[in-house]
Amino acid sequence: xxxxxxxxxxxxxxxxxxxxxxxxxxxxxxxxxxxxxxxxxxxxxxxxxxxxxxxxxxxxxxxxxxxxxxxxxxxxxxxxxxxxxxx
Length: 87
Hints:
By secondary structure, this protein is α+β, with helices and mostly antiparallel strands. It has four helices and four strands, in the order ββαβααβα.
């Protein structure tokens, strides 16, 4: 799956529709646990100093952007995220 590095966090670069498809796939796998995070800029910046938070984000099954500042930052890095997906 395509990901964009924003401040060291690899965020899935997918649309809301594709996000819902991915969630359906996770449900069908019948895993006992899966994690989905919707980081905003505050969480992403905190993860720079908080190693446990960064590791939790990096271990997530799905990480989608919740916040326009992440969208804007991705454009600055020339790897634009498709859209904001609110948690």
